[in-house]
Design goal:
Oligomer: single chain
Mean pLDDT: 82
Order of helices and strands: EHEEHHEE
CATH class of the largest domain: Alpha Beta
Helix content: 25-40%
Bound molecules: zinc ion
Distance between the termini: 33 Å
Radius of gyration: 18 Å
């Protein structure tokens, strides 16, 4: 078991766990039910762990790509809006035809 990501909140952790599992990597979320020991103060930091450490490197690479948005972009082909001039562009373009800004 190896920690691959610390999420800000439970939904993020579960999103990432679901993503990894969709890639065939078994993962678990830890931390969401912890309390401080002083009462009901919730611990809102959740971490995502890869069960099989042999898959950690791959999980980490996929996750970096996923968090940068590259993963969604590869498969969605969605339209995007140029951050510079506001031009609406088709998903296959990697730069704005109007002002030349590269798609982030
Ligand atoms: Zn533009």
């Amino acid at each position: 078991m190896k920690q691959v990501h610390v999420a800000k909140h439970a939904p993020e952790a579960h999103l990432i766990r679901g993503f990894l599992e969709s890639q065939g990597i078994e993962a678990v979320v830890r931390g969401e039910y912890l309390t401080s020991g002083w009462g009901e103060l919730p611990v809102d930091l959740c971490s995502v762990w890869v069960v099989d450490e042999a898959q950690f490197e791959r999980a980490n690479e996929l996750l970096v790509d996923f968090l940068k948005g590259g993963f969604a972009r590869k498969f969605s082909g969605e339209r995007w809006t140029c951050p510079q001039c506001g031009e609406r562009l088709e998903g296959q373009f990697t730069a704005c035809w109007n002002c030349g800004t590269t798609r982030k």
